[in-house]
C-alpha cells in the first residue's frame, strides 16, 4: 500500500528494474519449456532412442516442465509461498504413494 | 394481574424463541454454533453406535445366543463401526476443533464460515441418510470396511446407502479440513507464530492435512463402489477383468490416515490438559510438534499392514511392517513428554485430568498390541480374531473416546458456558474406565484362543464362555458411564451456574474470552508474546492480553440458509441415485435434488453478500 502513495502513477526505477528481470526470467523459462517439448517430440518421432530410455527421458522432461510451471508461472519461487509449496509437495507425495502402491501391489 | 400478563408475555417470547433458536442454528455460520451442531450430531450418533455395541455384547453374552438373527448381526456390526468412526468420533473432534481452534489462534471465526456451515449439514444429513437404511429394507451388512466382492454382491440397498451416505458426509469432512488449514495459515493473531501455537491447534493443522490427502482416496473408492453397484461397471468384478484388491488398497490408503485423524487431535488436547493441570509448560513442545508431523508422514506409508494376509508377498509385507513399527518412535516421544510434563508439576486431579491419566496406560497397551499385529508372521495368527478387535478398541476407545471425554470436561465451560459437575464427572470416568478394560482386555485372550471377528455366535465349552460374559458385563459399566455423562450435561445446563471466563487457571488464548464467547470472540484482537500467551501475561502481573489494535468496527459474515438447502438437494438426489436401479421415476429425485443443490450454488455465487459490521459504538455499549 505504501508504494502506491506516489501522486504520479509512474513506476519507480526499482519496480521497473524488477519487472524487467521478471519478464526476462519468464521468457527464458518459456523458451526452455518449448525446447524441452520439442526434444520430447523429436525423441519419439525420430526413434533414435531405445524405448526404455525414451520413456525415462520423457518422465524427466515432464517433471522439469511441472517444476517450471509451478515455480515461474505460478509464482511459487516468490516470498510467502512456503506453505503452498509444502502442501503441493506433500500432496504429490501422497498421490505418488497411492498410484505406486496400486501399481506395485495390484498389477505388477 | 400485571404478573399474569408478564408471565404470558414471557411464555410467548419463550415459544417464539424456540423457533428463532432453530432458525438461528439452521442458518448459522458462527464457528461456535457450528461446533454445537457438530457436538449434538456427534453425540446423537455416538449414542446410536453405543446402542449397536450393546446389542453386539448382548448377543455374545452367552454361547449360541439368538437375541438377534445372523443377518441383523451383520448389519449391526457394520453400522456400529461406520457410525462410530465417521459419524461419532470424527464429528465430535471436528466440533471441538471448530469451537476451540479459532479461539486459540486469536481469530474471530474460521476462514470460510459458509463452507463451515455447509460441512456440518453435509455430515448431519449424510449420517441421517446412512441410518435411513434401517427403515428402507436393511442397513449395510458388508462390514465397516465394505470389502469387495462382499459389498458389490450384497443384496438389497444397504451398501448403496453406505456408499452414498458416506460420500455426502465425507465431502463435509473434506471441506472442514480445508477450512481449518486456511484458517490456521492465514488468520493467526499478531505475534502468533507457528511455534507459538498451542498444541491442539498444531494437531488440528496436521489432522487437516491428513483429511485433505486421505479423503480423496475414500471418495474415489466410494464412487467406484457406487458405479459397480448402481451403474453396471466392473471395477471390482473379477469375472469382467476387475480386481477386488483395488478396493482394499483405496480403502486403507484412506483408512490408515483416518485412524491418525482420530488420534492426533486428542494428542493435542491431552497436551493442553497435562500442561494446564500440572501448572507447567508442556515438556518438549518442539519435539511434540515434530513428532506429530512424523506420525502424519509415516501414517501415509503403512496402509497395507491391514492387508498382510491378502498375499502381497513377503517383501511388501516386510516394508509395511517396518514402516508401521517406526510409528512407535514418535508416539513414544509423546508419551514420555506427557509424563515429563507432570514430573515435578503441581498436579491437580479433576475429571478432565483423570481421563488424561487413564489415557496413558490404556493407549500404551493399544500401541503395544499394535507392534504385535504389525509383526507379519504373528499377524497371520491375529488376523480377523478378537485380538485385533481388542487392539483397535484400546487405541480408539482408550485414545480417541477418552480424549473426547477429557476435552469435553475441559472445554465444556468454553463451549456451553457451564462447568460440568465434578462428582458426576468422576463417576463417569471410573465406571467407563473400569468397564472399558473389562470389555476389551479379555478380548485379547479370546482372540488368542481363536475367537474370530464378526461371527454372530460362539459354541459352548470352548473356553470362550467366561471371557465373553466378562466382556459383556464391561459394556454395561461403559453404558452407565455414558448415561451419567449425559445426565451431567443436562443437570448443569438446568441447574449449573454460569462459568467463569477462566475456570482452570488456563494458559492459552481461549481462556481470555467469556464463557461462552461473544460471536465476534474479541473486541480487540490480542497481541501474542509467546507460547502459553495467557500464562506469560499472568506471570508478568497483567492478567489479561494486550490488544494488538485499537477498538474498531468488526466485520462479520451474515447468516444464511443456503448451505442447508444445498445439502438438502444432495440428500434428495442421494435417494434418487440409490433407487433409480428399481424404477426410472427416481431419476426425478436424482436430477431434482441436483438441481436444488446447483441452484443454491448459483444463488450463492451471484449474491453479493458482504457481511455486516458491528460498530465501535455497539462494542463500547456492551462493555458496560
Structure description:
Chain A: This is DUF2768 family protein. Chain A: It is found in: Cell membrane. Chain A: The chain crosses the membrane at residues 26-46, 52-73, 85-107. Chain A: One of its GO terms (cellular component) is plasma membrane. Chain A: Its main location: membrane. The complex is a heterodimer of chains A (108) and B (624). Chain A folds into two domains: 2-77, no CATH class; 78-108. The mean pLDDT of chain A is 81. Chain A is flat and about 60 Å long. Chain A has three helices and no strands. Chain A has helices spanning 13-46, 51-73, 82-107. Chain A has 108 residues and is mostly helical. Helix content of chain A is 77%, strand content 0%. Chain B starts with a helix and ends with a helix. Chain B has helices at 2-27, 31-59, 70-105, 113-132, 150-153, 158-186, 199-230, 245-277, 285-299, 314-326, 328-342, 351-374, 376-382, 386-416, 422-448, 465-495, 533-539, 562-579, 587-606, 616-623; strands at residues 554-556, 612-614. In chain B, helix 8 (245-277) runs antiparallel to helix 9. Chain B is globular and about 70 Å long. In chain B, strands 1-2 form a two-stranded antiparallel ribbon. Chain B has one domain (2-560, 609-623): Cytochrome c oxidase-like, subunit I domain (Cytochrome C Oxidase, Chain A, Up-down Bundle). Helices cover 68% and strands 1% of the residues of chain B. Chain B has 20 helices and two strands. With 624 residues, chain B is mostly helical. The chains are: A mainly alpha (108), B mainly alpha (624). Chain A binds chain B through residues 83, 87, 90-91, 93-94, 97-98, 101-102, 104-107, and chain B through 181, 185, 209, 212-214, 217, 243, 245-246, 249-250, 253, 300-301, 303-304, 312, 316.
Amino acid at each position: 500500500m505504501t508504494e502506491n502513495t506516489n501522486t504520479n502513477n509512474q513506476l519507480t526505477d526499482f519496480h521497473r528494474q524488477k519487472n524487467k528481470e521478471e519478464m526476462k526470467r519468464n521468457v527464458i523459462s518459456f523458451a526452455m519449456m518449448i525446447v524441452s517439448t520439442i526434444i520430447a517430440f523429436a525423441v519419439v518421432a525420430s526413434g533414435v532412442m531405445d524405448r526404455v530410455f525414451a520413456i525415462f527421458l520423457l518422465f524427466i522432461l515432464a517433471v522439469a516442465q511441472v517444476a517450471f510451471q509451478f515455480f515461474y508461472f505460478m509464482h511459487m519461487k516468490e516470498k510467502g509461498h512456503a506453505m503452498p509449496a509444502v502442501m503441493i509437495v506433500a500432496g504429490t507425495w501422497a498421490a505418488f504413494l497411492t498410484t505406486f502402491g496400486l501399481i506395485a501391489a495390484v498389477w505388477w | 394481574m400485571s404478573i399474569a400478563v408478564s408471565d404470558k408475555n414471557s411464555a410467548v417470547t419463550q415459544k417464539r424463541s424456540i423457533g428463532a433458536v432453530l432458525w438461528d442454528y439452521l442458518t448459522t455460520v458462527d464457528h461456535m454454533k457450528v461446533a454445537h451442531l457438530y457436538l449434538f450430531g456427534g453425540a446423537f450418533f455416538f449414542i446410536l453406535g453405543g446402542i449397536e455395541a450393546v446389542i453386539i455384547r448382548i448377543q455374545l453374552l452367552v454361547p449360541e445366543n439368538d437375541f438377534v438373527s445372523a443377518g441383523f448381526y451383520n448389519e449391526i456390526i457394520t453400522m456400529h463401526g461406520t457410525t462410530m468412526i465417521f459419524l461419532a468420533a470424527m464429528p465430535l473432534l471436528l466440533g471441538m476443533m471448530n469451537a476451540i481452534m479459532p479461539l486459540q489462534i486469536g481469530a474471530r471465526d474460521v476462514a470460510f464460515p459458509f463452507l463451515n456451515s455447509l460441512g456440518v449439514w453435509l455430515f448431519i444429513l449424510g449420517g441421517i441418510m446412512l441410518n435411513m437404511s434401517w427403515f428402507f429394507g436393511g442397513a449395510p451388512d458388508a462390514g465397516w470396511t465394505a470389502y469387495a466382492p462382499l459389498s458389490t454382491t450384497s443384496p438389497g440397498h444397504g451398501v448403496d446407502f453406505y456408499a452414498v451416505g458416506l460420500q455426502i458426509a465425507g465431502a463435509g469432512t473434506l471441506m472442514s479440513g480445508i477450512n481449518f488449514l486456511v484458517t490456521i495459515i492465514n488468520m493467526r493473531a499478531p505475534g502468533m507464530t507457528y511455534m507459538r501455537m498451542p498444541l491442539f491447534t498444531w494437531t488440528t493443522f496436521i489432522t487437516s492435512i491428513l483429511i485433505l490427502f486421505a479423503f480423496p482416496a475414500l471418495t474415489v473408492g466410494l464412487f467406484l463402489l457406487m458405479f459397480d453397484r448402481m451403474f453396471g461397471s466392473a471395477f471390482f468384478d473379477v469375472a469382467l477383468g476387475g480386481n477386488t484388491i483395488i478396493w482394499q488398497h483405496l480403502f486403507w490408503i484412506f483408512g490408515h490416515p483416518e485412524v491418525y485423524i482420530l488420534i492426533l487431535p486428542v494428542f493435542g488436547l491431552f497436551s493442553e490438559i497435562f500442561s494446564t493441570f500440572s501448572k507447567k509448560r508442556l515438556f518438549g513442545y518442539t519435539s511434540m510438534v515434530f513428532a506429530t508431523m512424523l506420525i502424519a508422514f509415516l501414517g501415509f506409508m503403512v496402509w497395507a499392514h491391514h492387508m498382510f494376509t491378502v498375499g502381497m508377498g513377503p517383501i511388501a509385507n516386510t516394508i509395511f511392517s517396518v514402516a508401521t513399527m517406526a510409528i512407535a518412535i514418535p508416539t513414544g516421544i509423546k508419551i514420555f513428554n506427557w509424563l515429563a510434563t507432570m514430573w515435578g508439576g503441581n498436579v491437580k486431579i479433576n475429571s478432565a485430568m483423570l481421563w488424561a491419566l487413564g489415557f496413558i496406560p490404556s493407549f500404551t497397551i493399544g500401541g503395544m498390541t499394535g507392534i504385535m499385529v504389525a509383526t507379519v508372521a504373528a499377524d497371520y495368527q491375529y488376523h480377523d480374531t478378537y485380538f485385533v478387535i481388542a487392539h483397535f478398541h484400546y487405541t480408539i476407545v482408550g485414545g480417541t473416546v477418552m480424549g473426547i471425554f477429557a476435552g469435553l470436561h475441559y472445554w465444556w465451560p468454553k463451549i456451553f458456558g457451564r462447568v460440568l459437575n465434578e462428582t458426576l464427572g468422576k463417576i463417569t470416568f471410573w465406571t467407563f474406565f473400569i468397564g472399558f478394560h473389562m470389555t476389551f482386555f479379555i478380548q485379547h485372550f479370546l482372540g488368542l484362543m481363536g475367537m474370530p471377528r464378526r461371527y454372530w455366535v460362539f459354541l459352548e465349552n470352548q473356553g470362550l464362555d467366561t471371557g465373553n460374559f466378562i466382556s459383556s458385563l464391561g459394556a454395561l459399566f461403559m453404558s452407565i458411564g455414558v448415561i451419567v455423562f449425559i445426565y451431567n450435561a443436562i443437570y448443569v445446563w438446568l441447574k449449573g451456574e454460569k462459568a467463569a471466563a477462566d475456570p482452570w487457571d488456563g494458559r492459552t488464548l481461549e481462556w481470555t474470552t467469556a464463557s461462552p464467547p461473544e460471536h465476534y470472540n474479541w473486541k480487540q484482537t490480542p497481541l501474542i508474546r509467546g507460547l502459553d500467551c495467557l500464562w506469560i501475561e499472568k506471570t508478568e502481573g497483567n492478567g489479561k492480553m494486550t490488544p494488538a489494535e485499537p477498538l474498531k468496527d468488526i466485520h462479520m459474515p451474515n447468516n444464511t440458509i443456503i448451505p442447508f438447502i444445498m445439502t438438502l438437494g444432495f440428500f434428495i438426489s442421494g435417494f434418487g441415485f440409490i433407487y433409480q436401479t428399481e424404477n426410472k421415476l427416481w431419476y426425478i429425485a436424482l436430477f431434482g435434488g441436483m438441481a436444488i443443490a446447483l441452484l443454491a450454488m448459483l444463488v450463492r455465487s451471484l449474491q453479493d453478500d458482504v457481511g455486516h459490521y458491528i460498530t465501535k459504538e455497539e462494542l463500547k455499549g456492551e462493555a458496560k
